[in-house]
Design brief:
Keywords: ATP-binding, Helicase, Hydrolase, mRNA processing, mRNA splicing, Nucleotide-binding, Spliceosome. It contains 25 helices and 21 strands. It is α/β, with parallel strands linked by helices. Helix 3 packs across helix 4 and helix 24 runs antiparallel to helix 25. The N terminus and C terminus are likely disordered. It binds adenosine-5'-diphosphate and magnesium ion. Magnesium ion (MG) binds next to helix 3.
């Protein structure tokens, strides 16, 4: 009987397989048709000829015309992958993942095999990979191990107009590599912006530009400034939904929190309409959205329904969503800003540039005529918006790239071939910080600690914290903390109807007012003790996804420890050594309590506050070290731990003098500043 059964199953399987194959084939064929319908397809031969004839080529084409998904495939079809990989950089993680998934699908291969992606803490490639999408930051890191990019035949620096810090640094490095590797092809690809500038920079490289499809977009401005752009955006979406013909809506918001709250409000209002209106499908998209939900934005909208995509800047040029007819643009984005005088960095909600506004509007006219609703006045647009977004290199902390460049053997940073140079004081500040962290010596040369730090794909302050933990024999705990700090999303959630429970669960990790870093460690180790239980996460109002990501990151950090020959050692009995390791990395981020109850940063005095979500918000210790500053209604310190002021002199003698901590040390009441554990 068994064999008969098996036989039957076999036939069933075969049958299923055949029809699956057939379905797959038609799906593949369909995808090939779609490929041929993209604007770039008509220029395939011309493009390949230009690549053959020139070593460096600047490629410019409308967003959505097929640059990112098609050019690597064309190069593969033309045989370039026989000599090495084709690498294509993206400024955003989500774009790298999503585009790689799409291309794998178009080529009918499994993602991670011939087509893969590599982003920080996640390598989805294999020995087979010939088309590799990656973040610009990852290619920069690859250069540390392979300075001539020998395994690549073509490098595409894509979305070049975004001018991220890593892209700008890559420009200088790949330009140099191209000089001594005549066999390497270099393509700089961008949306319709800045082509001349790229060409000038790359020694007058030819510009290959091809027309995309662009349908007219009707522009609407508000007649008076909006007091609350979120509310205005929601009202606009609903008005479009009720009044305008079918077609999907794209709304640009500044970040995950805004998107989540907009989603919530929209759902509520839609419920209020009952069945009087058509179905409105809400799709959020932002950097930390789990990948299975990312795919949802690309699913075709069902007949009769409308889709509204709530996106960050990612949908400006990195991702193209088909079917968008209406764009709602409040005119803001979240931007990093850096004050080189104080060394303070924060994320600010900032008005966008005209170039950005034009890209956003363009998303409405890709497949047919569309409409763009700008939630600002024409006067605002004409008089207040900058022409172009300032490149990141001019508004960020440079410590991380300076460390990377130093490990690449590039010492003369002032004369590095920047397309737009950073402010000199920002470079000096970065060198000073790396010196204070012990990564560079007085001559500006990399030290042993600096070499170790450069191995970690982390901010130098985090790397330093890890490297120092070797001395204190607590690397096991410190990499857990570093992983938890690197998740880049929320760990705790607070459902509206269970806020009290959630807050209580959260406070459980804060026993003894130990500070947020130790609380994060407790969360991680408690989860580990339950053998990484999902149930445990639910019970404690903790995001399972975030924890899994923390575990992945931690695994990688553990691997890197081995590489820099730091032993994994655990020192759970002495919380002071854990806090000392934190301070050894984050000493520039210290603040002291003021009489007013607020804090002042020690080195470059600025008023700051403990974030209300911090376990120390009610404790108000005298001295704290913090992970980062976020500016909302006030300048808040997020992830805060208490420290002893004398540690600053012990751990950062090049940075703090006695006078910085003295006054407090003498005036301190007995026992204050002692570890609260
Ligand atoms: P460009 O780089 O010129 O902006 P792309 O190559 O990214 O253009 O996009 C070409 C087409 O591929 C677009 O129509 C876009 O909608 C589609 N596409 C890209 N990624 C995906 C995806 N993950 N799923 C479905 N379609 C996608
Ligand atoms: Mg693209």
């Amino acid at each position: 009987k068994e064999s008969v059964m098996a036989g039957e199953n076999y036939e069933d399987d075969m049958h299923a397989k055949k029809s699956e194959d057939a379905a797959e084939k038609t799906a593949l064929e369909e995808l090939q048709e779609v490929r041929k319908s993209l604007p770039i397809y008509n220029y395939r031969e011309q493009l390949l000829k230009a690549v053959e004839e020139h070593q460096v080529l600047v490629i410019v084409g409308e967003t959505g015309s097929g640059k990112t998904t098609q050019i690597p495939q064309y190069l593969h079809e033309a045989g370039y992958t026989k000599r090495g990989k084709v690498g294509c950089t993206q400024p955003r993680r989500v774009a790298a993942m999503s585009v790689a998934a799409r291309v794998a699908q178009e080529m009918g291969v499994k993602l991670g095999h011939e087509v893969g992606y590599s982003i920080r803490f996640e390598d989805c490639t294999s020995d087979k990979t010939i088309l590799k999408y990656m973040t610009d930051g990852m290619l920069l890191r690859e250069l540390l191990g392979e300075p001539d990019l020998a395994s690549y035949s073509v490098v595409i620096v894509d979305e070049a107009h975004e001018r991220t810090l890593s892209t700008d640094i890559l420009f200088g490095l790949v330009k140099d590599i191209a000089r001594f590797r005549p066999d390497l092809k270099l393509l700089i690809s961008s949306a319709t912006m800045d082509a001349e500038k790229f060409s000038d920079y790359f020694d007058s490289a030819p510009i290959f530009s091809f027309p995309g499809r662009r349908y007219p977009v009707e522009m609407n401005f508000t007649s008076a400034p909006e007091a609350d752009y979120m509310d205005a955006a929601i009202v606009t979406v609903l008005t479009i939904h009720v009044r305008e013909p079918l077609g999907d809506i794209l709304v640009f918001l500044t970040g995950q929190e805004e998107i989540e709250s907009a989603e919530e409000i929209l759902k509520q209002r839609i419920r209020g309409f009952g069945t009087k209106i058509r179905e409105l499908i809400i799709c959020p998209i932002y950097a930390n959205l789990p990948s299975e939900l990312q795919a949802k934005i690309f699913e075709p909208t069902p007949e009769g329904a409308r889709k509204v995509v709530l996106a960050t800047n990612i949908a400006e040029t990195s991702l193209t969503i088909d079917g968008i007819k209406y764009v709602v643009d409040p005119g803001f984005s979240k931007m990093k800003s850096y004050n080189p005088k104080t060394g303070m960095e924060s994320l600010l909600i900032t008005p966008i540039s005209k170039a950005s506004a034009s890209q956003r509007a363009g998303r409405a006219g890709r497949t047919s005529a569309g409409k763009c609703y700008r939630l600002y006045t024409a006067f605002n647009y004409n008089n207040d918006l900058e022409e172009n977004t300032v490149p990141e290199v001019q508004r960020t902390n440079l410590a991380s790239v300076v460390l990377a460049l130093k490990s690449l053997g590039i010492h003369d940073l002032i004369n590095f071939d920047f397309m737009d140079p950073p402010p000199a004081e920002a470079l000096v500040k970065a060198l000073e910080l790396l010196f204070a962290l012990g990564a560079l010596n007085k001559l500006g040369e990399l030290t042993k600690a600096g070499r170790r730090m450069a191995e970690f794909p982390l901010d130098p302050m985090l790397s330093k914290m890890i490297v120092v933990s070797d001395k204190y024999k607590c690397s096991d705990e410190i990499i857990s903390i570093a992983a938890m700090l690197s998740i880049g999303g929320t760990i705790f959630y607070r459902p509206k109807d269970k806020q009290v429970h959630a807050d209580n669960a959260r406070m459980n990790f804060n026993t003894g007012n130990v500070g947020d870093h130790i609380a994060l460690l407790k969360v991680y180790s408690s989860w580990k003790e339950t053998n990484y239980s999902t149930q445990w996460c639910y019970e404690n109002y903790i995001q399972v996804k975030s924890m899994k990501r923390a575990r992945d990151i931690r695994d990688q950090l553990e691997g890197l420890l081995e590489r820099v020959e730091i032993e994994i050692s655990s020192n759970l009995n002495d919380m002071d050594v854990i806090r000392k390791s934190i301070v050894a990395g984050f000493f520039p981020h210290t603040a002291k309590l003021q009489k007013t109850g607020s804090y002042r940063t020690v080195k470059h005095p600025q008023t700051v506050h403990i974030h209300p979500n911090s376990g120390l918000a009610q404790v108000v210790p005298r001295w704290v070290v913090y992970h980062e500053l976020v500016l909302t209604s006030k300048e808040y310190m997020r992830q805060v731990t208490e420290l002893k002021p004398e540690w600053l002199i012990e751990l950062a003698p090049h940075y703090y003098q006695l006078k910085d901590v003295e006054e407090a040390a003498t005036k301190m009441p007995k026992g204050a500043g002692k570890a609260a554990i």
